Task: inverse folding
């Protein structure tokens, strides 16, 4: 464990970390439980999360002053997040939670392939190999679950966007407080969704009207989604990053699709049953995702040993 962490993680820290990952895996299920469409859902989620984060920042004595240019940039990232969430929830709605999470599990490797384009880092051979393995897994799923092509395509698009804004955020957090960044991003995501509504209402709804009316169950699920799965889970993860190594965090986050698929099966049962081909393909993808941080750890240890062996 790196000495830079504030303290050694305790058992309850491990429990909280897995609980947060469980919540992230639960978001696709909430998207299917909530009766309103994906666009209206993202509208409510983003405004509630933005307000709640603003209250948290103000309560903790944080600052919103980061400069007009930075605000414009961060709000722009929020536009990307809005598209990511709309595709994510729409994927779960038109196909299944399992299909959605199988596609979303490619986000970490999309990140590893895209990062060299944004930074000066070199492409790593093992990451190319894992990407090929993921393509094989996706091919198997497409072959056996052809009826869900639209759903998994949406999930892949959502994962691609997640990789893009994760790379951008990794640079933003070097100079600004993560909670402040997220607050402006949620505001940007709300703005993007609101601006999208006229086009969406005219061209993408059957009745030409928005479904903004919610029932009592929707109020509960949207509240959990915005406040528990977004605000609490995010701030909790940032706090735990001070105790866990990046390797441990990345390895644990890979459990998100596993938890989500298991929860979906228990909640929706027959509605989440897939062909054997789906589970073969999903297993290959998840194996690749789990293997990535392990290979990365081996590579980093080799580099450190090589550096230690060089004369000073």
Result:
């Amino acid at each position: 464990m790196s000495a830079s962490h504030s303290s050694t993680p305790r058992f309850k820290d491990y429990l909280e970390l897995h609980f947060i990952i469980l919540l992230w895996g639960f978001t696709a299920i909430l998207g299917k439980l909530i009766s309103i469409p994906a666009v209206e859902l993202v509208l409510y989620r983003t405004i509630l999360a933005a307000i709640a984060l603003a209250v948290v920042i103000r309560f903790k004595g944080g600052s919103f002053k980061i400069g007009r240019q930075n605000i414009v940039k961060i709000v722009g990232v929020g536009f990307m997040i809005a598209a990511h969430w709309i595709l994510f929830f729409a994927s779960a709605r038109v196909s299944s939670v399992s299909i959605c999470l199988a596609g979303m599990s490619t986000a970490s490797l999309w990140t590893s392939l895209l990062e060299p384009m944004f930074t000066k880092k070199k492409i790593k051979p093992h990451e190319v190999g894992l990407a090929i393995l993921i393509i094989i897994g996706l091919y198997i799923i497409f072959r056996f679950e052809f009826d869900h092509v639209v759903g998994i395509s949406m999930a892949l698009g959502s994962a691609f966007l997640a990789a893009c804004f994760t790379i951008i955020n990794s640079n933003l957090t070097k100079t600004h407080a993560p909670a402040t960044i997220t607050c402006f991003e949620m505001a940007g995501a709300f703005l993007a969704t609101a601006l999208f509504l006229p086009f969406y209402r005219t061209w993408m709804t059957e009745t030409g009207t928005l479904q903004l009316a919610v029932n009592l169950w929707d109020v509960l699920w949207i509240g959990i989604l915005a406040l528990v799965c977004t605000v609490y889970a995010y701030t909790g993860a940032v706090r735990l990053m001070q105790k866990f190594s990046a390797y441990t965090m990345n390895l644990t986050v890979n459990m998100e699709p596993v938890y989500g698929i298991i929860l979906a099966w228990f909640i929706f049962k027959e509605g989440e049953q897939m062909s054997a081909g789906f589970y073969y393909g999903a297993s290959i993808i998840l194996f690749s995702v789990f293997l990535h941080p392990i290979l990365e750890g081996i590579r980093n240890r080799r580099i450190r040993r090589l550096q230690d062996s060089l004369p000073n």
